[in-house]
Amino acid sequence: MSKLALIIKTRTKAGKRDEVRGLYEQLLAPRALTNPAQELVLMNNDAQDPNVFYLFEVYANQEAFQASSQAPWFWEYRGAAEPLLEGRPEVVMAVPVWGKGISI
Fold first, then answer.
1. Between the CA of residue 14 and those of 43, 63, 85, what are the distances in Å?
2. What is the pLDDT of residue 102?
3. For the whole model, what pTM was predicted?
4. CATH class of 4-94
5. What's the alpha-carbon Rg for the chain, to the nearest Å?
6. How many C-beta atoms surround the C-beta of residue 34 within 10 A?
7. Are the C-beta atoms of 57 and 87 separated by less than 8 Å?
8. What is the structure's pLDDT at 52?
9. Can you tell me the distance from the alpha carbon of 98 to that of 100, in angstroms, rounded to the nearest whole number?
């Protein structure tokens, strides 16, 4: 099975990026830290736009991603974050083929 990478671009309402990050750290980060099938998670603030952040994730396989994205705690985060967002996040799914710091 191939690993699955997600690249997610999220635009928040003005001045709400840190609040959304706080929700992520409270509701999702603890799950990521204890989930061996979620092999890499990296949250990045956009260097030019204070209302945009990017999330990079690598899952062991498609099934691991599906299990995570259907969990009740993920939907709790989505419900709490949605009023702070400017539209829906842009999600790109990809298959990793080379990497440093992670086994492909």
1. 19, 35, 9
2. 87
3. 0.92
4. alpha beta
5. 14
6. 8
7. no
8. 98
9. 7
- For residues 73 and 28, the answer to whether their CB atoms sit within 8 Å is yes
Q: Please give the C-alpha separations between residue 8 and each of 1, 45, 56, 72, in angstroms, as whole numbers.
A: 22, 12, 7, 20
**In the numeric block, which tokens belong to residue 28?**
């999702």
Using alpha carbons, select from 60, 5, 69, 7 the residue that is nearest to residue 38. Answer: 60
pLDDT tier, 104 (very low <50, low <70, confident <90, very high otherwise):
confident
Helix axes 17-27 and 72-81, enclosed angle (nearest 10): 160
32-89: pLDDT as tens digits: 999 999 999 999 999 999 999 999 999 999 999 999 999 999 999 999 999 999 999 9
Domain ranges of the chain: 4-94
Residue whose token pair is 């997600």:
6
Average pLDDT score over residue span 9-23: 98
The CA distance from 93 to 19, in Å, is: 26
Q: Do 88 and 12 form a contact (C-beta atoms < 8 A)?
A: no
